[in-house]
Amino acid sequence: MENFREGLYFQVEEKQNWEDASLVWFYSSKKGFKPLQVTDHTKNLRKSGVLLFMPPGDMEELEIEGSRCYWIGVEDAKGFYSRKHTSPPVVKRIFVNAVEIQNMETLEEQEYFADFSPLNRRFPLYANHILHAKVWVNEKGALSQEEMKGLLKSCPENVRAEYNVLGEIEEFYVLWQEAEEFELSENPRSYRIDRGTSELIFGEGIQGAAAKNRDSAAFKVQVTRCSGERGNLAPFSSLRFRGHLGLMKHMETTGKITGGWDMEGPGDALKRGSHVISGRKRLVSLADYEREAMFFSRSIHKVSCVPGKNGKITMVLLMKDYKEGSHGFYAVRNGLKNHFMAQCEITCKEEGIEIVEPVFVEISVKLWVTAKDMGESIEVSQKWLKGIECYLEPVGEGEHKGWEIGKLPGKSQLKMWLSSVESGRICHISASARYQMGGLDYEVDLEELECLPSMVCVNGKHEVFVSAERKEGSHDCLKKYERQIL
Fold it and tell me: pLDDT (tens digit, 9 = 90+) per residue, 399-415?
């Protein structure tokens, strides 16, 4: 087992805002359990993820409760889970031999023998869904021997030299940088990528340096792309892999994979363009921050900025794939924060902005309704359940677009919405709210809950009780019963 990295995927019941939890891992040896160094992508079992570790050389089997195995133990170092009203992590399933994958593919480097002219500054990249590219431009004739040797010493990671048999530099490639606009780039060695047409664009020499014609390759490009929406997979999908992977026979996903998007269409491009024009790339108001976050990733469904003390901003992100856990949120959080730091380094320092998930409030509804025909009770209950779930779903479609972050429905609003369901009559309705905050679980009546700016409602567990509609003599008894429970 030594010198082999092991990965265990923990599928857990995700906990929110449990930042204080601290778990310590151990492994079994001849002398008992010893501390185990791990790379924990589960955030202390707060979310589903991979736990990576190198099995130590002295890891041994131990017999515990009649089972002789290699054991891994975990301990609550700070006693966080021993606190009142705090439940321990719930591990639903563990997968062995787990690795993290990304919807990303780096293609082989291509050489371009180009004829540059004022009318020929665009070159096809022969790839779609381009994420980024490395562009190495041949500057052999533009630099002296001293300049090339100086660059090789000062920044060897950004230059590549090719030598002839005499040891002389024959070709000299410099790594150029991508820019959104040539006139805004501080680095003259810049290029642009038109991801809509999959083209590489060089400057004309005034705004952005102009690449030169060469007898050999003028530049080399290595493209990194993704599969777009094709990379979104159902749970336990089989994966195909290229080449030989030793003893590996089968590969499958541990859960649903989401977050892949195809290239934006004309409508999305127009919306993004209008945002750029209206904001002029300035982040001043909270609305500016919210718009910038929405256009950063199409995986984000809603954004709400909450101002705090001393100018600190808390940004709450609701992801479209929130039902699949926190993977989507963690995939964009760091990139979004770095984007804001680059956009507003003067007005907002790194510690001045915090990006968090919403506090999900599970609203559970119990509904008592009457039906004319008890033979249709299953169909009736399904209609009511569908109406409740549609109303409380934060990522809504159609008529109901979902509740905004920081707003929760009341019982009267819920009853008014359900009155549109044409199936039976409501006798009584009750609703409770359950949420986690500060590592504690709370459950209260919906009417007693004080809504916080970071809260968003989601569906809990709903129940619909269907009874027959009483007639004539028994109708008064039903009315009396309704008054009592209402």
Answer: 667 888 999 998 888 88
Residue 478: exposure state from Cβ atoms within 10 A (0-12, 13-18, ≥19): middle
For the chain, how big is the Rg over CA atoms in Å?
A: 30
- What is the predicted pLDDT for the residue at 350? 65
Q: What domains lie within the chain, and their CATH numbers?
A: 6-95 (no CATH), 105-225 (no CATH), 266-356 (3.30.300.30), 359-485 (no CATH)
Q: Decide: 313 and 289 in contact? Cβ < 8 Å.
A: yes
Nearest to 49 by CA among 77, 23, 67, 86: 23
What's the average pLDDT block by block, 10 residues per block, for the chain (486 residues)? 76 69 89 92 86 91 89 87 76 87 87 77 89 92 87 92 87 92 84 90 76 84 88 77 66 77 72 68 79 87 86 88 85 87 66 87 91 77 87 78 87 82 79 86 90 93 84 42 33
The pLDDT tens digits for 62-107 are 988 888 999 999 998 888 777 776 778 888 889 988 888 778 889 9
Which one, of 484, 474, 475, 470, lies nearest residue 370 by Cα? 470
Calpha distance 55→36 (Å, rounded): 8
Instruction: Give Cβ neighbours of residue 126 (< 8 Å, ≥ 6 apart).
Output: 110, 198, 223
Q: Which two tokens stand for residue 342?
A: 């680059």
What are the tens digits of pLDDT across the range 171-197?
999 999 998 888 878 888 899 999 888
